[in-house]
Amino acid sequence: MFRSLTLTLSLALAGAVALPALPALAQNGPLRIEITDGVVEAMPIAIPSFFGDPEIARKVRDVVAADLTGTGLFKEIPADGLAAAPGSFAESIAYEDWRAVNAQALVTAEVTGSGDNISVKFRLYDVFAGRPQGDGMQFDARASDWRRAAHKIADQIYTRLTGEQPYFDSRVAFVQETGPKNARIKRVGVMDYDGANILWMTDSSSLVLAPQFSGDGRQLVYTSFDSGFPQVRVMDVATVTSRAVTQGADSMAFSPRFSRDGRWIAYSLENGGNTDIWLMDAATGAQRQLTDAPSIETSPSFSPDGRQIVFESDRSGAPQLYVMGIEGGEPTRISFGDGRYGSPAWSPKGDLIAFTKQLGERFHIATMRTDGSGEKNLTESFLDESPTWAPNGRVVMFTRVTPGGNGQPRLHSVDITGRNMRPLKLDFAASDPSWGPVMP
Q1: Could you tell me which residue ranges the TolB N-terminal domain spans (predicted)?
Q2: What is the pLDDT of residues 212-260, one digit of tens each?
């Protein structure tokens, strides 16, 4: 269903360009945007029309521009403010012309097609240094995968200019919601991170909740009510086939999540009126109980190394966050602020935990360090919930529900500074996002 792109480092591309002598104002280090918790000034970037097939070149250019400007870190110079573009992809860059329009970075690219395949090559230039920023690169792909080629280019530019890991060429699993609040119809879908290329993984015949990607993006684990009671199912994304991995007739299993290496599935099991965290070997199905308390323990999330689990528990009288090893034992409470804490998600970088916080009548998506220090609210609304991390640990996607009898859930994203929040462009209600890895 998903095809790999051929990625070729084209050192010859860089060598084919006649490099001008470095100007006097050339900088010593590479062009780099500084991302801090202070004020970030968006970097002016020029992305003139790409060369090659006009229609596909325009679409690829537009996706690259949308990816970069969507981060809030880049400001695209409008078309009527650009300098005269070179006459061809191979032509040398007149850096002084681009400095005159205050471009700090310049992207040129060429998109060519042959049958069902396309080839996209690009270069990134440090305008003020007057030199290429890294080698030119070429991506070969099926024509139907042109958006993936565009995301790969944007990922390369983002990484070279920020020093951060990429995340544009990734997918998000989610739940589509239709119908009135008291009779919701839900189905699981998978889409590009920006809402394009939606594929439906389940139909609407039974209620489904909270899909979660495996670390390699090849499987989903989710809660299904197709047996009449909530149980955990695992789906192969490529074949869209699923199997139940819990089947207790007198218990309810829900809120599952994979460890990054895919070896384990942690989930909540309600039995006899009590809910605890359980751990399942994904290969053998062997299960063991990790918590044993009269309180409600739910929403487990693994640390990136798979050795710890953060979860939500009301054992203190109100929902708070706790961390324990995967062998179980006495957990350590890490949240102590006012309000109710829930739905924790451990960052793929391992440094932060995102969670939902209810304080009074308002909900927040917030983050804290893994020891509970440095708590920081990123959002505030009538109802924000279900955070999930981008693969690079810089952006969080979540569900925002609008108030009122006709209120609907919508997906939004926010960066970890809390300054750049954006709604996802979907024309339907959606919830429960799970951000998968960058695709190979």
Answers
A1: 31-131
A2: 999 999 999 999 999 889 999 999 999 999 999 998 778 899 999 999 9
Tokens of 223: 């809660």
> Sign of dihedral through CA atoms 161, 166, 170, 173?
negative
pLDDT of residue 22: 31
Tokens of 158: 């983002």
The burial of 75, by beta-carbon neighbours within 10 Å (0-12 exposed, 13-18 middle, 19 or more buried), is given as: middle
What's the rounded Cα separation, in Å, for the pair 422 and 411?
A: 9
| Residue 21 identity (one-letter amino acid) | A
CB atoms within 10 A of CB 352: 21
Q: Say how far apart CA 375 and CA 331 lie, in whole Å.
A: 20
**Distance between CA 412 and CA 137 in Å, rounded?**
32
Q: Which residue has the tokens 């949308």?
A: 66
Residue 399 and residue 431 in contact, taking contact as beta carbons nearer than 8 Å: yes
Pairing of strands 241-244, 231-236: antiparallel
How many Å apart are CA 234 and CA 174, to the nearest integer? 15
Strand partners, 60: none
Q: What distance in Å separates the CA atoms of residue 28 and residue 425, rounded to the nearest whole number?
A: 40
pTM (two decimals): 0.91
What is the rounded CA–CA span in Å between residue 344 and residue 311? 6
Adjacency order of strands within the sheet including 362-369? 340-346, 352-359, 362-369, 376-377
